[in-house]
Amino acid sequence: GEMERIDLPPVGPTDLPLSLLEMGCSGRFELITHPQPNDQPLYPQSTLPHGLPPTSVGLETEVEKRFLRDPAWLPIHDTDAAFHRLAERDVRVDSLLHCSSSPLHSGISVVRDPTTGMLLDFTEVLLGDTGISAKNSMSLQRPPNPNPSESLRGSNTNYPFLPGLLTVPPGLKVGMDFSDKGLNGHALREKTYDSPSTPGTPSTEKKDGGTTKPGEGHEERKRWAIPVDITSPCDDFYKRIPNPAFKYPFELDMFQKQAVLRLEAHESVFVAAHTSAGKTVVAEYAIALSQKHMTRTIYTSPIKALSNQKFRDFKTTFGDVGLLTGDVQLSPEASCLIMTTEILRSMLYNGSEVIRDLEWVIFDEVHYINDAERGVVWEEVLIMLPDHVSIILLSATVPNAVEFSEWIGRIKKKHIYVISTAKRPVPLEHYLYTGNSTKTQKEMFLLLDPTGNFQTKGYYSAIDAKKERTSKHAQSFGTKNASQKTTPNQDRAVWLSLLHFLSQRQQTPVVAFTFSRTRCDDNARSLASMDLTSSGEKSDIHSFFQKSLSRLRGGDRQLPQILLMRDLLKRGIAVHHSGILPILKEVIEMLFSRGLVKVLFATETFAMGVNMPARTVVFDSIRKHDGTGFRNLLPGEYIQMAGRAGRRGLDATGTVIILCKSGVHDMGELHVMMLGKPTVLQSQFRLTYTMILNLLRVEALRVTDMMRRSFSESHRDTQAHEQQIGQLKQTLSSLPPLDTEGQLSDLLPYYYTVTELRITAEALQCAVLGSVNGLKALSVGRVVVVNNKQHFNALGVLLQVSSDSVNRTFTALVICEKGNEEGGGDSPNASAFPHLYNTALFLPDGPCSHTVQKLKLQDVSAITVKTLKVIPDRIIDNYNKRQQPRFRLDPPGQAISTATQELLRLAEANPGGVVTLDAVNDLQLKSVDVVEGTMRLRLLQDSLKDFNCIHSPTFSEQFLRVQERMSVQEELDKLLFLVSDQSLSLLPEYHQRIKVLQSLQYVDNSGAVQLKGRVACQISSHELLLTELLFENALSPLAPEESAALLSCLVFQQKTQVEPHITNTLQEGIERVLAVAQRIGELQRDCGITQTAEEFVGQFKFGLTEVVYCWARGMPFAEIAQLTDVQEGTVVRCIQRLDEVLKEVRQAARIVGDSVLGSKMEKASLAIRRDIVFTASLYTH
């Protein structure tokens, strides 16, 4: 009766603080039961994959529905009554409990009689992989994504497909290796040598015909990359490929045939060849093959412009081609997709459905992996590609192609055939040009002939030609200063005379590489008097120009840059660099490839572009600024640019000309640049937050695995290490056991103390020797204590000190027992280091003898305070003389016997040990290491006296055993460390970055990705800053155009001199961004990352805020260009990339559930997507 009287307060909204939160992205939920603070909203709905549980439809919509079905049903005057009529709905709670049926876990199979086919029985069969989906499995067996919009790019809640082989099951710390060590390993090893090789090329068989033994590790390891011999003829090519997937109108080169054979066998290849050699053939064949096999190919290139050009080329060849770049998406269902590497990376991380059907991925211009900023993307993509995809790598000639392919082969577990050719279809001739007037315009001197011989004759003729016109001063002082600035008028004279000369000799079209944008523009403008086109060509150029720009709005066609370029183009001159408007660049490229542009002033980017060869290439200078300072061109850069000379099928040779404006360049520098090795492929792998978060959200992938597989760690030869570890473990187990009973119980601690003492003493000795005072002390006549195999605490006197500072040796006279001059009687306990605790000096039992020998630094265990007067030359001569057989029995000379007597007298006077020089007090070495070392040394020496084991009769032999055992153990520990994750060079940085992510709450302490981390996964660059801005609502006070202007700081990278004029809210926004950046920068600093906060904040440049703001508000481009000193092309590129950022922010806002921000970004995007900035590329139409 008492129980019922408890009054419960009415249930309020705070009583059941339950909410569901999706954990990670695998479809698991967690019930959150701790009460929410009242002011804080519930977690946003969209962290649930299907939104919140269903609720009933609003009354308005239902009334509306009834009304539309039957207008008479709704009374006109009293609409409220209609609502009341609807209010009595029947509530069905169980509708909330409805859930879709889970997939069947088993099926039924029939058992039949094998002879009659009669049904005998039914058995239940378990089905594997039933509950898997893109949200919880990396298997290729998972059902395709039902959502068509996600199937192309994937979604950031998808798991990626499994890259490579898993050795560790998800959730376990270590894996199992089931391969049978004995037999299989051997059989496997045999198999890899019978790799299918082209007739005529012996495959990598062992020369002696034997199989490989584990010891011959080298042969064994080199097995992933297989260099293909391209000199051997391939006569049966057409027999082996009777109906090729793609027929070429010309006979293929050797290297192309080899590559095609490999592709037919579905092998991966690495093709390194010069630009014009025809690597595209390999790519085309792969695309044709995948069309034949009904699979897909992805072609990636480093640069967007390159993707566009390739799209046009392949579209004309194959038809079924799509293009995906940051802002364009054309026919994504095509069998060949062209994209930038970044997009492929996000497709891999987001588990795109395209990956299932992928047969080939073609990486063009792989040498771009050296790019400091973006090189890491290539490595990520190569590591993340699943097993069934074959890889084609196309690259300029690189010296370490085999090493690079070896790395890829090893992480992908497949053979990579390396096909490299240095042959140029059109050989090059390199000239120096010294002309600068009509009179001297023919002064062109051959420096390097097509066969690659350096002509010094030409070099000296160029110097002479230049000499005739230089001042007396330059003649006498040579022309070291070739980098002197020349005046614009001198430049103009050089260009005019050169171009007249070349056009007379019909050497056009010419590409003139100039390493600054302003120089390009100035050079082109200075040629106002030149006209290189005929009237027919002029009308062609005019009509093409008008047609191409017809898509622009009227005002945009009158932009100053366009008008200027139109005048230049009519005269056959053009400029190509990043400051030129993209559409104008494309017009110029197309006119150039049609031979209508006769002279093109271009920067280095043109050489990265698609195959646009010219007749002649001219280098305006051979020095460029690489962002830190001026330097000469690297051989790789020079080859890449010079390789634009010579059009296949049109020119017999290509001409490369280096201008000598102020003087002839240094011969050595020219030689290195023309004939040096091109740049090696080097890993630019670094950790990025996006990479870490993307890998953390999938349990089966570990960041350390990614690091271990990166090219920067490719020197880790784990296989060989594992082998050595096995051998060492065996050795350890075969060693005799240690006797550590009784007196010997402290043998191991003794060993450790002695080892430390030895190391400390050696370090101290090195410090002494490296110091001035130490060397002064170790001079002729100094008495030292000697300890080595032969001597134990013997006194010696120095006679000579070698001058070699690296391995310094000392010649000394040392006293010894009679009969032990040769060191034959090896003292039994030499290796037990007794001198470390026993300072008693050596006194000969019988008569005292002596020996003169060279001592190493380790042999001198102490420097005493005593010196003797000696005559070194006499002693050494006398000793050497008495080493000869016939003077063997002569008595020692006066000098020697005096010295020996003196040493003996010293030893007898101080049997307990002579006073030694102290490094700190006597030699004045005051550095911390030395002071600490000396103190440590004293401590250790004192502690040695207290050990019991040294009194044991079997001490020395037991000590030797310990030593042997320990040296094996140390070696083993070293190898185990090298194989473990602990030795990864980036591991410390990884822990630092995780710390940053934890303190910003992107991941929790167990490493599970939180909401903020999920948002950051969506963002490809500056992910921390953008995510922080989102979560701090920094964009909410801004109008759409202001937020676009603010975010421009993430994509604009140049310096600008113009101060932008902006609204107050924008100014506050900028300050807020800087404050957040400062906060992140300082946090990174605190977590140990090397970048300073200033550097971090300095990445964000606000020079274009005003420009973007005005553009988003609808100001025409012509007026915008007036607001800034940044060139038009850069502005356009910047706004295009800004659009991609806005897209990412919109996606992120969707994840957070901030619809206001999402629609604001949508508006901002629409505001900037107009006119000249977003005209479609000419290549894609």
What does this 3D model show about the protein?
The protein is an alpha/beta fold. It has a nine-stranded mixed beta sheet. The chain has a seven-stranded mixed beta sheet with strand order 15-14-22-19-16-18-17, with helices on both faces. Strands 26-25-24-23-27 form a five-stranded antiparallel beta sheet. Helix content is 40%, strand content 12%. The chain is globular and about 135 Å long. The chain is built from 42 helices and 27 strands. It comes from Oncorhynchus kisutch (Coho salmon). Residues 260-416 form the Helicase ATP-binding domain.
Arithmetic mean pLDDT? 79
Radius of gyration: 40 Å
Q: Could you tell me the strand content as a percent range?
A: 5-15%
The counted number of beta strands is: 27
The spatial strand order of the largest sheet comes to: 5-13-6-12-11-7-10-8-9
Count of individual helical segments: 42
Q: Per the principal axes of the C-alpha atoms, what is the gross shape?
A: globular
Alpha-carbon distance between the two ends: 87 Å
Main structural class:
alpha/beta
Low-confidence stretches: 44-51, 180-220, 471-483, 824-830
Biggest sheet record: 9 strands, mixed
Helix content: 40-55%
List the helices and strands and how they pair.
Layout: E1 19-23, E2 28-32, H1 59-69, H2 79-87, E3 106-112, E4 119-126, H3 148-153, H4 183-193, H5 217-221, E5 225-227, H6 237-240, H7 254-264, E6 268-272, H8 280-292, E7 296-301, H9 304-318, E8 321-324, E9 329-330, E10 336-340, H10 341-349, E11 358-363, H11 375-384, E12 390-395, H12 401-412, E13 416-420, E14 428-433, E15 444-448, H13 456-467, H14 472-477, H15 488-504, E16 510-513, H16 517-526, H17 535-548, H18 554-557, H19 560-570, E17 573-576, H20 582-593, E18 599-602, H21 605-608, E19 616-619, E20 623-625, E21 630-632, H22 635-642, E22 654-659, H23 667-675, H24 689-696, H25 703-709, H26 718-734, H27 747-770, H28 772-777, E23 782-786, E24 794-801, E25 810-817, E26 848-855, E27 860-867, H29 872-883, H30 894-909, H31 928-944, H32 955-979, H33 987-999, H34 1011-1017, H35 1023-1031, H36 1040-1047, H37 1064-1086, H38 1093-1098, H39 1105-1112, H40 1117-1122, H41 1128-1152, H42 1155-1168
Parallel strand pairs: 5-13, 6-12, 6-13, 7-10, 7-11, 8-10, 11-12, 14-22, 16-18, 16-19, 17-18, 19-22
Antiparallel strand pairs: 1-2, 3-4, 8-9, 14-15, 20-21, 23-24, 23-27, 24-25, 25-26
